[in-house]
Amino acid sequence: MAFAKKSLGQNFLMHAQTAQRIVEAAELPERAVVLEIGPGTGMLTSALLTTGMSVVAVEADHTLIPTLEERFANEVAEGRLRLVQGDVRSVDLSILPEDYHLVANIPYYITGELLRMFLSRSQKPRSMTLLVQKEVADRIVRDPKGSLLSIAVRVYGTPIYRFTVPRGAFVPAPKVDSAVLSIQNISKDAFPTQAEEDWFFAVLRTGFGHKRKQLVKNLEALVPRGEVAAVLKSLSLPEKVRAEDLSLHDWLSLAQTLRN
Ligand code: SAM
């Protein structure tokens, strides 16, 4: 597809069947409202609408909007599809109801940013089902302790690896395979206060600061060394433990105890 814009991470799904499988993997309730990021040429949008969902689709590339308007003229007229032109990171999303779901084949260049943005915002989706790089889905789901990203997702919801999508399913084909990642049971109140949320992420980010260093050494940037050692001991964690050895439960206990 000669017109695909690399800078916007445009890799379009080729088969309606793959789009249908993504919608099934999302396990949406009947007539849910879905936010779709980057509808592109509308392959996934079509599968969502066919299943009876209402869709708010945000597309950054203004040149794609007329084709989408034409393709889905009926659904737009019925009010089942709202097309919004703009960058999802800055458009006004207040038109979404409280209990919306996110389903998208997102551009790889902003995967991490979008995960952070939608999991930590006050208006969180009920669930997120996303096509991401296979390696990212593996890191989040199959290695629950090993990365900041995995812990950062798990603190809000339950990540599930749905299925692998080979690179040949897209035009143009990306360099790597993709996978459908679903995050279910997203909690609206994972943290009682904003200050606790901010502190948890400060501890997590600092703890993972230098990959090969012990946790105590990394956390020295945030808390006096003796204090961290005492807290690790009180939580029955080894003195020389590394960030990638801690479970979500350990991180929550660590952040809470260090805060007290
Ligand atoms: N959903 C389509 C599909 O599955 O074939 C297209 C997926 S393509 C990987 C990503 C889409 O996101 C493109 O249409 C691109 O223009 C759009 N996009 C890229 N950055 C965006 C942003 N910041 N906000 C909204 N849409 C964006």
Summarize this entry quickly:
It is built from 11 helices and 9 strands. With 260 residues, it is of the alpha/beta class. Helix 8 (194-207) crosses helix 11 (248-259).
Structure description:
The chain is of the alpha/beta class and 260 residues long. Helices cover 38% and strands 18% of the residues. The chain is built from eleven helices and nine strands. It has helices at 16-26, 43-50, 65-71, 73-78, 111-120, 134-141, 148-154, 194-207, 215-219, 225-234, 248-259, and strands at residues 12-13, 33-37, 54-59, 81-85, 101-105, 128-133, 158-165, 170-171, 178-184. A seven-stranded mixed β-sheet has the order 4-3-2-5-6-9-7. It has a two-stranded antiparallel ribbon with strand order 1-8. Helix 5 (111-120) links the parallel strand 5 (101-105) and strand 6. The protein is elongated and about 65 Å long. The termini are far apart. It binds S-adenosylmethionine (SAM).
What ligand molecules are bound, each kind once? S-adenosylmethionine
Content of β-strand: 15-25%
Low-confidence stretches: none
In N-to-C order, the SSE pattern is EHEHEHHEEHEHHEEEHHHH
* Largest sheet report: 7 strands, mixed
Tell me the overall shape. Answer: elongated
- Look at the helices and sheets and give the structural class: alpha/beta
Topology:
Blueprint: E1 12-13, H1 16-26, E2 33-37, H2 43-50, E3 54-59, H3 65-71, H4 73-78, E4 81-85, E5 101-105, H5 111-120, E6 128-133, H6 134-141, H7 148-154, E7 158-165, E8 170-171, E9 178-184, H8 194-207, H9 215-219, H10 225-234, H11 248-259
Parallel strand pairs: 2-3, 2-5, 3-4, 5-6
Antiparallel strand pairs: 1-8, 6-9, 7-9
